[in-house]
Amino acid sequence: MNLKQIEFNKIYNMNCIKGMTLIPDNKIDLIITDPPFAINFKASKANYNRTASRVIEGYNEIKPEEYYDFTFQWMSESFRILKESGSMYVFSGWNNLKDILMALDDVGFTTINHLIWKYQFGVVTAKKFVTSHYHCLYVCKNGKKRKFFPYTRFKKNSKTTEGRSLHYKDKEDVWSIKREYWTGDQKTPTKLPAELIKKILEYSSEKNDVILDPFLGSGQVAVISKMLGRKFLGYEIVKEYYKFAKKRLDRNVYRLKEKSTRKLKMKH
Ligand SMILES: C[S@@+](CC[C@H](N)C(=O)[O-])C[C@H]1O[C@@H](n2cnc3c(N)ncnc32)[C@H](O)[C@@H]1O
User: Where do the domains of the chain lie, and which CATH numbers do they carry?
Assistant: First the structure.
């Protein structure tokens, strides 16, 4: 691999902080990412009703005391390589939210929205409330040049059967989107649903834009970007996850089955 030059429509098995240093300034249109959590996450644990044997092991975790520095480093590189018109969406649980918020400010990003992704179930806990949401920080490099496409999903006057504005509903900052169960298929321990990524891509990018995910995991961001005619780029430090994401991209397959495969098509 020639590490002097990073190409688009490729993913790389490497540390994203190193990988991003190989990208020249102002090259990326949109970053969508879900960084590691620093909560001692165990990939092989049979949580969320999953069969542990199909979950690929090896998740790379960051120590809590190193989380701010790590976050500041990858965000500084992200800021440098984003175009002036570019935006970034960063997912975070509540545990590390303060480090994420501080680093975004310290690096110089402008915050546009603090979105909540509400999913359909959480881990049931006896003595506290069930966490059933994720935070998503929508930020940009230059508030005056930021791209946003408000009517690609719903026309200004489109209404529900009850006469409510579909456009308004879709633009509220709490997004209820179901997690995907990939029962019986290979998977990594965490993944963002396709619908969530599609929504971000439709509001904040156009065809042929370059979409980066520094922390690919299963490769969801790259796979959905490819499906929607965007250019993709991404990094994953764990070899097995990288191989899994690459296989999905090379074969144009959304879910990898043991024998048969499902072609890259989504119902929306
Ligand atoms: C929360 S997961 C991402 C899940 C992904 N959004 C998906 O839908 O599958 C974070 C990923 O970042 C990877 N990772 C951790 N540190 C990294 C680094 N320095 N460079 C690249 N990848 C890293 C982990 O191995 C893990 O797969």
Answer: 10-251 (3.40.50.150)
